[in-house]
Amino acid sequence: MIVSLQNEQVKHVVSLHDKKGRKEYREFLVEGKRFVQEAILRQAQLKKVYYTAQDAATGPSDPQYSLNISGLVTEVRALGIEAEEVSEAIMRKMSATEEPQGILGIIRRTEFDWQDIKVRKDTILLVVDGIQDPGNLGTILRTALAADVKQIILTKKTVDLYNPKVLRSSMGSVFSEVILTDKTPEEIAIFCRQRECSMVVSTMGGTSIFKTNICEDYPLALIIGNEAAGPSAFFMEKAAKHYSIPMFNNVESLNASMAAGIFLYEMRRQGQFL
Prior knowledge:
Number of helices: 11
Structural class: alpha/beta
Oligomer: single chain
Largest sheet: 6 strands, parallel
CATH class of the largest domain: Alpha Beta
């Protein structure tokens, strides 16, 4: 059992709280029974698990998931993954949340690049351009997976994919999606041109998404921009179409994740995929 704050494993886990550490080690953290089990179910590259004995012995499991922490530790070990007990003080130090949930895991990042993006005639790529709020990005990723949009590109100005708040909001969807990070608008435009994939932007003042035949644009890359500024000037200039969501009663804008959900589901509906 780990009880010393000076233990090198403790220092390593704490380093993953920061983007610099996550990038250097190509690892990130997942916390809580649900998230660790989600990582197992979706076959993420789970490297090691840390848990506290008190939490392992008590507490009902989430009704959506079959195991409490003790059972989860048993399953982890059965898969050949190391699980090590730590003191409550160590768990508080390791955790990136104010209220540790008694178990956390280290995940090896899966690195994707352009060759992993597959474009077919009915493809919808989702481009997230400059979203800064971690909760927004996580919710967008979860919504995209629900809409069966599993290929996503994040621009350089977008919040870190492995930010703990992004991961919590995504509810494990990151384990089932091909996500490219740190791409420039120019790189994205070149890729879309090479694959004959239309770029369309979500913006104010565009054509109503409900009054157009979006299928004419397939395959397409939907660009969702920054919460305040919208898509970058480059995308606004280069996009083949500008689409918007009609709003009433002097409502000026919607949350970025809500807008993304409306766009993705309307695109799927028009494509008769629902």
